[in-house]
Design brief:
By secondary structure, the chain is an alpha+beta fold. The protein contains 6 helices and 9 strands, in the order H-H-E-E-E-H-H-E-H-E-E-E-H-E-E. Strand 5 and strand 6 form a beta hairpin.
C-alpha cells in the first residue's frame, strides 16, 4: 500500500479489508473487518461533506493575496446635554430636528475633510408620534445621507433626547479630530462615544474606542 492515498483510494482499501475476500475470517480478523467497515462508512460521509462544502463555497470567497485598504470608518454616538438643567440642550434639540440645518452641516463637514460630493445631503423628517412620546419612546427627528465619490456620510437624530448617530466612511483617509470638533461646535455635542477604525479585507486593522466628556 502506498504511503499516501486519495480519499477514494482509502475508501476502496478500507472496504476491501472489511469484505475479507473469499476466505473465512478468524475471530481477530472479524474485529479488524468490522473496524475497517466503520472506517469506510466514515470516509464516505467525509467525502459527501467535502463535496457539499465545495458546492456552496465558490472561489469568490477566497481572499486575494494583495490586500486592499478600504479606508476609514468613523462612528459617533453623540449627545447634546445641558449641565445646568440636566436635560437636552434646547438649541441643540432644535438643530437636531431641522432637516435644513442638518443637510447644510452634513455637506459642510465632508467638504471640510476633503471629500467630493456626488449627491448632496438628502434629509427626511421622521414623523412625531405623541403616543410614543407619552411612553418615553422618543420619536421624530431627522435621518439622511450624503453620497461621496469615496463612500458616504449619514446622520440620524433623536431631538427629544438630545442625541444623534453619525457615520462617515471613506476610502480616502481623513482627520477624525476635525470631524469631532465640527460636531461639537455646529451641533452642540457635549459628549459621546467614538469608534474609529481602518478597514482592510473587511477586517479591523485598527479599532479605537474613545469616550470623552466636556
Amino acid at each position: 500500500m502506498a504511503d499516501t492515498m486519495t480519499l477514494d483510494e482509502a475508501i476502496e482499501h478500507a472496504q476491501t479489508v472489511a469484505d475479507g475476500g473469499d476466505q473465512p475470517l478468524e475471530e481477530g480478523d472479524v474485529v479488524c473487518a468490522d473496524n475497517h467497515a466503520q472506517l469506510a462508512t466514515w470516509l464516505r460521509e467525509l467525502r459527501t461533506r467535502r463535496a457539499a462544502e465545495q458546492a456552496v463555497a465558490p472561489e469568490v470567497f477566497h481572499r486575494p493575496t494583495q490586500g486592499i485598504n478600504f479606508g476609514r470608518h468613523l462612528i459617533v454616538e453623540g449627545w447634546c446635554w445641558c449641565a445646568e438643567t440636566n436635560a437636552p440642550d434646547p438649541e441643540a434639540a432644535r438643530l437636531l430636528n431641522s432637516p435644513e440645518c442638518l443637510a447644510e452641516a452634513l455637506n459642510e463637514i465632508v467638504q471640510l475633510v476633503g471629500m467630493d460630493i456626488l449627491r448632496p445631503a438628502d434629509m427626511c423628517q421622521v414623523p412625531l408620534s405623541p403616543s410614543r412620546v407619552e411612553t418615553d419612546e422618543d420619536d421624530g427627528g431627522v435621518t439622511g445621507t450624503v453620497i461621496l465619490t469615496t463612500s458616504h456620510g449619514s446622520i440620524h437624530t433623536w431631538p427629544l433626547q438630545g442625541q444623534f448617530a453619525f457615520d462617515l466612511f471613506s476610502c480616502r483617509d481623513f482627520d477624525v479630530d476635525v470631524v469631532v470638533a465640527f460636531l461639537k461646535e455646529r451641533l452642540g455635542m457635549t459628549g459621546g462615544e467614538i469608534i474609529n477604525f481602518k478597514r482592510e479585507h473587511s477586517a479591523f486593522l485598527k479599532n479605537e474606542l474613545r469616550k470623552y466628556n466636556t
